[in-house]
Design brief:
Elements: H1 3-19, E1 28-34, E2 40-47, E3 50-57, H2 73-87, E4 95-99, E5 104-108, E6 116-117, H3 118-123, H4 131-147, H5 159-177, H6 182-194, E7 198-200, E8 209-212, E9 215-218, E10 225-227, H7 230-246, H8 251-266, H9 274-294, H10 307-319, H11 325-336
Antiparallel strand pairs: 1-2, 2-3, 3-5, 4-5, 6-8, 7-10, 8-9
Helix pairs in contact: 4-8, 5-6, 5-9, 7-8, 7-9, 8-11, 9-10
Length: 339
Amino acid sequence: MTGEEERSLEQRCMDLVSELGLGDPSEVTCVEPLSGGVASDVAKVDVGDKRFCLKFALPKLKVKEDWFAPVRRNRAEYEWLRVAGEVAPTTALRLFGCSETKYGFALEFLQGDDVYLWKSALMEGQKNDGEAEQVGDLLGRIHAASAANGFDTSHFLNEEEFHAMRIEPYLLFTASRRPEVADELHGLAKMLSESKQVLVHGDVSPKNIFFRDQGPVLLDGECADMGDASFDSAFCLNHLALKAIHLPDSRAFMLDQFEAFWKAYAVHVNWEDVADLEKRVCMLMSAFMLARIDGKSPVEYLDPSVQPKVRDLAVFLLSSPVANVGALRTTIEEKIKEF
């Protein structure tokens, strides 16, 4: 980050601190940029003896391809955190306000000896403490709550943002590069665009999930939208599948996590036949696997020599879809033995 960008972030943080009544800008003693992925600027901010995390949506994402998204998505993320807090208050982060003009919000800074990032634990091969089951359970409870009569959807009718952040870069852009499965990808894009079943987080990835003693904390819901329930599960399962490919010594463990996540999630499905949802999850996960090779957000850790094999696997899964997560796990397991 350049000096000019650092000053800009510092000024934005001071302005937000003032607007949200978190303190006087003169009390800001530290603005430390944090890794916020590609879609936002995130900072740890000390205001007197208080510490906050401030997050600002970016209009252009920090990736190689041109990728733009409306910055008003910041409000949807804040509201997703509020809903998650109502569903699972013991794991919730405290929220301190959201600005409609500065496209930023403030929340509790997550810290403590018990805090760890799920992605780091997976990549380091740490033992299973039931993380996948806990994430699946939390996500299932949120989806079920949002499918109930009377759920307030007003903050989550974000078709434009979801299209820009997920459907176009993951499905439509990938279809333009892989004409052999373009029809399947366009069909999935249409399905996602038309469905308004549940509150979709949009980025259920181990890099966005922290654990502390109280349980999982799911962050970065910038894509929050009323959408198809298959999206979040497929997104998370794809991350676990890619890590199984990347880490041969942990392959069985990752695929066990793969099934454990789904089983914990599926018990909460009461808005449709779970078998119908499971079919869509399997198909969409295959699309996401291909998108992490040929879409606008390629996976960063796969060896270049492995990427063509992952592409072939994803194309096979899209062309020969399976009906359930157990069969999907078996197919992946058999195919990656040849890698």
